[in-house]
Amino acid sequence: MQKTLIKDILAATEPAGSVTVCGWIRTRRDGKGVTFLELNDGSCLTNLQCVVDAGTPALEGLGDNGTGAAIRVEGRVVPSPGKGQAWEVQARAITVFGSADPEKYPLQKKRHSDEFLRTIAHLRVRTNKYSAAFRIRSQAAYAIHSFFRSQGFYEVHCPVLTGSDCEGAGEMFRVTTLPPGERDLSKDFFNRECRLTVSGQLEAEALAMGLGRVYSFGPTFRAENSNTPRHAAEFIMVEPEMAFADLSDLMDLAENLVHSVTDSILTTSAEDINLFDRFVEKGLVDRLRIIASEPFARITYAEAIEILKASGKEFTYPVSYGVDLQTEHERYLAEEHFGRATIVTDYPKNIKAFYMRNNDDGETVAAMDVLVPRIGELIGGSQREERLDLLEHRIMELGQQLSEYDWYLDLRRFGTNPHAGFGLGFERLIMMLTGIANIRDVLPFPRTPGNLDF
Ligand code: 4AD
Ligand code: MG
User: Fold this and answer.
1) Which pLDDT tens digit goes with each residue over 345-384?
2) Please, which residues have CB less than 5 A from ligand 2, an ion?
3) Which atom of ligand 1 has the smallest separation from the CA of 381?
4) Is the Cβ atom of 421 under 6 angstroms away from ligand 1?
5) Per-residue pLDDT tens for 213-231?
6) Least distant ligand from the CA of 347
7) I want to staple 38 with a disulfide (CB 3.0 to 4.6 A). Which of 18, 26, 105, 329 is the partner?
């Protein structure tokens, strides 16, 4: 189907001449002898105004409303006398592909609550806010790929079906082909327990040991029953892994990645970001400029605890050395204390995963979390324990079987070296970039406890 994208028509410095455009009618307004149709094709936020003569065939096919209908408009681009747009289309002919019954089509009003729109996740992409969010999501993914490519990283694909529990947290979805009630794993597809991955890290580590610098960018699953605005059961994680690298290299990588992606979005998605600045979070653009340019604060966990204790704040979860940081603590540090992204390092080993590198103090590990205002934890990672004996010791200390980790331990038996990686929660990044406060609104079809409707 020959057609021009609305964003190309609107961005042109000269009127585009004769065009065919296809899209959905956002609003219809009838004037004297003419009808104005605001058309959106998803290519950009701004609608294209189409001016249609009252007598134009097919106009009747729209009924007296038209909102939501899919149409084609053939016409000529001319300078627009109206304010707000440089060009409009004088329609010569319109074709209605599909109408939308005004009695039934739910997106009639201009503004709807986020809660209502979650109940129509399959339609909400047709609103300004959600189309802007999902365009930004796409641009951010592209910016991440460009960043890694420019730094010599290769993208890798890690399996979704797995036999191991990377984080040791045990909050995993089981996958089986056994009929309900059947428990004999020897009859199951893999003859053993199979689960959905919580992280591609272990496999990414293996691939980094031959490719040097890799990243995976894929779905991960967590069956934690936490109904928070920051947790989803299925989400995308971006996981770089670098051979011959330590914690300091990893912090630099995280900071450069977040700088680069934020800076890129401010340019490529300016129109969409401005919508969020106006309607979702006032001051968003200024906040993003700080995230894109200011160096991240860097502190140790011990320092973080001291800052939190000295804050004079009443936290729901009291603070003392050894506790895991909660979102309220993370937000206090990034939002109020430092007012910018903050990297916390060297957590006590007891609150972190088995694979993190032991520090010489015997108490802490070379872990790193990146905390950002409004979200809390955006990134979690570490330098990995590359010493075979220490890694084996830690696995046993946690009561796990060494045999479960045999292939992973091979990475320490053959050509081991200092290496490091992290996981960035892609949805949390989109929340940071848009000011959207609930993870359910940056995922096109969110999976959260009790919610698998779409
Ligand atoms: O800190 P996490 O659990 O780290 C790992 O899984 C490491 N294996 C990653 C690595 O080193 N390669 O998760 C990483 C990030 C978190 O910082 C958070 O942004 C996001 O993933 N995340 C979630 N995002 C949405 N919903 C959830 N349930 C999430 N759990 C973690
Ligand atoms: Mg974490």
Assistant:
1) 999 999 999 999 999 999 999 999 999 999 999 999 999 9
2) 380
3) 11
4) yes
5) 999 999 999 998 888 999 9
6) 2
7) 26
